[in-house]
Specification:
By secondary structure, the protein is α/β, with parallel strands linked by helices. It has one domain (4-227): TIM Barrel, CATH 3.20.20. It is 31% helix and 24% strand. The longest helix has 14 residues, at 164-177. The two termini are 25 Å apart. It binds zinc ion (ZN) (2 copies).
Length: 228
């Protein structure tokens, strides 16, 4: 049976201050690794973003999407699917947002004042999907671990940057509470442990990903990470 491997959590140096590769470089890398597609999820303005703060909102969003556009252009040339996403940050707790558009972001000028709950309501109403990224991660940039099952539809259960015991905590919580999961690399640089998700069907749009995770079927999460 054919299988389709996707990266759901990836950064570029155009959008993320911690990114080390352009979108085009990431596309080349993932094509070489045999992935079918990637979702670019750069750190938004409330996270480790690479975009200057003093720009008008629409211009700031425009620049934020440069990493995605670079990956998409290259992906179209080499046969790698590229989708748009973003990663937001509330005092260290991060969320992956999928199914939104650049144009929609340009219209949300009050977005930085939203609470996680407001984010969940607005993104879901817009047809998007909220995943709490790497719950239980501890790091200098995370003052306090807070789990938000009421502000997302899924947890990122297997993040290739996390220690195995950190992912295990998220898996245990999700299992107990019936929360669906995703997996991703949190890709920043050229060589690192890689994860992602393997689907039975090729996505046509990002909504195929969202529908699969909502249903909890048609995919499996990569749970053991290969350094590449
Ligand atoms: Zn980062
Ligand atoms: Zn990330």
């Amino acid at each position: 049976m054919a299988e389709y491997k996707y990266e759901t959590h990836l950064h570029t140096c155009q959008g993320s201050a911690c990114g080390r590769l352009t979108g085009a470089e990431q596309a080349d890398l993932y094509k070489g690794f045999g992935y079918t597609g990637i979702v670019v999820t750069d750190h938004f303005f409330n996270g480790n973003c690479a975009i200057p703060r003093d720009l008008p909102w629409r211009e700031r969003v425009e620049q934020f999407c440069a990493g995605y556009r670079s990956a998409k252009k290259r992906g179209d040339e080499i046969g790698l699917q590229v989708f748009f996403g973003l990663e937001t940050n509330f005092r260290g707790q991060e969320f992956l947002l999928y199914g939104l558009s650049e144009e929609w972001l340009k219209e949300q000028e009050d977005m930085l004042s939203w609470s996680p709950k407001e984010q969940f309501e607005k993104v879901t109403a817009a047809g998007g999907f909220v995943v709490q990224a790497h719950p239980y991660r501890t790091a200098p940039y995370i003052p306090e671990v807070i789990i938000y099952p009421d502000c997302c539809e899924a947890f990122e259960l297997y993040n290739a940057h996390n220690a195995a015991e950190v992912n295990a905590q998220a898996v245990a919580y999700a299992k107990e509470h019936g929360i669906h999961g995703t997996g991703g690399t949190d890709a920043h640089g050229p060589v690192q442990p890689r994860g992602g998700m393997i689907f039975e069907k090729k996505w046509e749009t990002i909504h195929d990903y969202i529908a699969a995770v909502r249903s909890g079927s048609g995919y499996r999460i990569i749970t053991e990470f290969t350094e590449m």
